[in-house]
Amino acid sequence: MVSNAPSSLPLPQMEDMKGKIRVFCRIRPILGFEQDKGQQFALNLPDDLTVTHSWKDEKKQREYNFDQVRTLSMANQSLGVIT
Predict the structure, then answer these.
(1) Please, are residues 68 and 25 in contact by the beta-carbon 8 Å criterion?
(2) In 3-state terms, what secondary structure has residue 10?
(3) Per-residue model confidence as pLDDT tens digits over 12-56
(4) How sure is the predictor about 8, in pLDDT bands with cuts at 50, 70 and 90?
(5) Phi-psi category of 30—alpha, beta or left, where left has phi over 0 and alpha has psi -120 to 50?
(6) Residue 55 burial by CB count (10 A; 0-12/13-18/19+): exposed, middle or buried?
(7) Which of 22, 26, 24 is nearest to 68 (CA)?
(8) pTM exceeding 0.70
(9) What secondary structure letter does DSSP report for 21?
């Protein structure tokens, strides 16, 4: 059996050839009725790819990594498709 893709390609180039699933996170602002109930913004954004938050009585924050985190300050127009 002959492969169409050379095995000597670096991983990023191989992923581009095969297609890569990208995961984005868009953080929305707190809505008015949520603020009226006393809810507060509870997420931390340590960098452009990570979201963390406290969970119940756990001492360590839960951490989630994405290909991109779209923050509250980004206009909806800038949320187009990223390739």
Answers:
(1) yes
(2) coil
(3) 776 676 777 788 899 888 899 999 999 998 899 999 899 999 988
(4) low
(5) beta
(6) exposed
(7) 24
(8) no
(9) -
User: How far is Cα 83 from Cα 74, in angstroms, rounded to an integer?
Assistant: 18
- Domains of the chain, residue spans: 11-78
Which residue do the tokens 């095969």 mark?
Answer: 18
Kind plus residue range of the DSSP H or E element containing 14: helix 11-18
Tokens describing residue 52: 């963390």
- Residue with structure tokens 């991983």? 11
Q: Which stretches of the chain are assigned E, i.e. beta strand?
A: 24-26, 43-47, 50-53, 62-65, 68-70
Q: For residue 64, what are the contacts with CB-CB under 8 A and spacing of at least 6? A: 25, 50, 51, 52
